[in-house]
């Protein structure tokens, strides 16, 4: 019990406290821990990964070249079985199946003159005046389009791969508007039908942001703060919305970014997340909006995280589509992080493309209204909307009215959209709450993959890169957030800058400052027992009784034991008995017996001669073993370390290690780790120990107080409020969900929706949980989560209210 709470508890403390905690544990201040446990059970935000995989156990294939940094641009060329990797001043063609194999490379540096000019403009020659490869796209003729920052003078070129060689054509095309000047500035781009859509700054200072399409007729955004206001661009995606579209609608290009909210009243410029979109067929207006988008519409996008006052800021998105179903079923998964540095939470929210599309097609607009002579307020526009609808693509209705291209659009429509590109309503995530929230390393990138598990259901598994070079693998099982594992992908804690998935190789590719890594979606062999394999709740893995191994579902024809929703390991055959190891110890000596559970969610228990061992100053239960201090003759015997893990169905106990301990003269104990031999003569006195324990109790109390103060642990007074609200909220959840289901009724209700439906009974089922460690799913519940509280974003709902 205590050991597990210790594991859980450590995750809530900032790292600098970990050492102190460890010390506390080693000294066995166990009577205080139940208190700590009781507190943290109410904080589901800790979401502990079940497994922590250190770098040396990851088995990643890696690529890096000496002296080359910033491997942050990738293009999957599945047609050529290549991974194109853009770094600083170099592009590599790597074997897609094994990226440690370099097939070709090409250098693209800057000239001395370019470097000198860059330096003269006040930029750092070593950091900024280099050519950072930023854009890599496939062209229709199989060549690639590549752009680099080129010492603050962006340039683009064509590149081809043939006969094992990468060649740049040295076309030297102007890269302004296609690629940022500043290598530290965020940008986004996508190639659609040989036209490059890019979102970046068009000037040296980085102060003129645009979304542009570089085509024979180039189209861009207006330079107006109502269009783009100090944006940070995140990602782009295309959507084939013309497919089987009854309204004759056009394909769209979506852009995700964050920016200063023009609609916010607060003077300190609140940052909000946005989704914008343009129509592929947009040619700009005739007089108004000449060579500018006539279809640029944007909306706020929310990810309501419990305990947050300020809106969270979008950092990355992943478009997930079922190839068998129409575009309306596609989902955007997005990562959010706090805008103030007061919190270390990150979140993932999922959005239906159909919800976003509907908002742009049918939603109300916001309009600026001048109040008190100079102050501008953005409110819902409630007047007449011109026809064709401002911002809409050319559709059948427009064509009927004789408008076949955006050049034919009336000035009224164009002037309207020029002044009002912002939609009134914010886009809400599915279930109106995040699918994952975690405290700890900041999320940077996300990929989502769907897996049909042994139970026949399809689950969405999230792969999330962090600032610290780790990758989380997580799922949401009917509203329950579960982190399967956290993998230390890169040896040094450096941010994951790019993450890609190839559905051809089934591999993930990640890039960081110092290199690139490739890993499979699952590494089932890491589980050596059936219990561990099943309790991992990884939809990719199952236990094969015939061979006695944890194997990948995709590689097996046999029926495997798996239980992702419940973690039910009752079908597991009995594990092979553990071989006892011999240890010996001197009377008065100290000895550590190691025992590490494969799971962070398990608690370890010790038995001696089949009787439970109670921790004391004499027997100290550590996270990774048992410490016996000042051994006496009576300490000999059979010691067994048990790992107890609770799943939804029951507690599972496995023997992790067993020791035969003999107390006697040295010599018989080969391999025994006898510690502190000096303790035989002058070990710590009981009085001394008591003094130390007393001191540490005081420091623990100080720590707890500090945690309350910093908000790392919820105050107990919140709990009462929470439970009184539960019944009502479970009910409200039900209502929300049933209306969602109703709206979606025309769609077949299939299994893959399930992971995202954040269960009706979610609230009640989680309230029954008494174990904080396995449940990260209760986020949002018990709070006012669905209605985001934005005290600083005060909207007046209607113009008439002014
Ligand atoms: C991979 O995904 C693409 C779309 O991104 C799809 O067209 C293709 O069929 C998929 N291939 C496999 C093997 O699933
Ligand atoms: C490039 O990599 C170095 C680490 O070697 C890092 O310090 C720097 O910030 C990176 N530059 C960019 C633009 O990401
Ligand atoms: C432990 O010692 C016993 C005898 O005391 C011996 O039979 C056994 O083989 C030893 N086990 C190991 C693993 O050395
Ligand atoms: C070690 O244990 C013995 C009795 O087993 C006791 O007399 C002695 O005081 C203990 N030493 C320390 C330092 O606790």
Could you name the key traits of this structure?
12 helices, single chain, Immunoglobulin-like, elongated, alpha+beta, five-stranded mixed β-sheet, disordered N terminus, disordered C terminus, five-stranded antiparallel β-sheet
Structural summary, described in words:
This protein has 802 residues and is of the alpha+beta class. Among the domains are: 522-576, ligand-binding face of the semaphorins, domain 2 (2-Layer Sandwich); 581-675, Immunoglobulins (Immunoglobulin-like, Sandwich), CATH 2.60.40.10. The chain is 16% helix and 32% strand. It is built from twelve helices and 43 strands. The strands form eleven sheets. Strands 1-29-28-27-26 form a five-stranded mixed β-sheet, with no helix packed on it. Strands 7, 8, 9, 10 and 11 form a five-stranded antiparallel β-sheet that branches. Strands 35-42-41-37-38 form a five-stranded mixed β-sheet. Helix 1 (2-10) crosses helix 3. The longest helix has 27 residues, at 717-743. The N and C termini lie far apart (60 Å). The model is unreliable at 1-45, 667-689, 708-775 and 777-802 (pLDDT under 50). One 2-acetamido-2-deoxy-beta-D-glucopyranose binds at residues 581-582, 660.
Brief rundown of the structure:
The protein is of the alpha+beta class and 802 residues long.
Distance between the termini: 60 Å
Provide the list of bound ligands, each named once: 2-acetamido-2-deoxy-beta-D-glucopyranose
Q: Look at the structure and give the CATH class of the domain at 581-675.
A: Mainly Beta
Structural class: alpha+beta
Beta strand count: 43
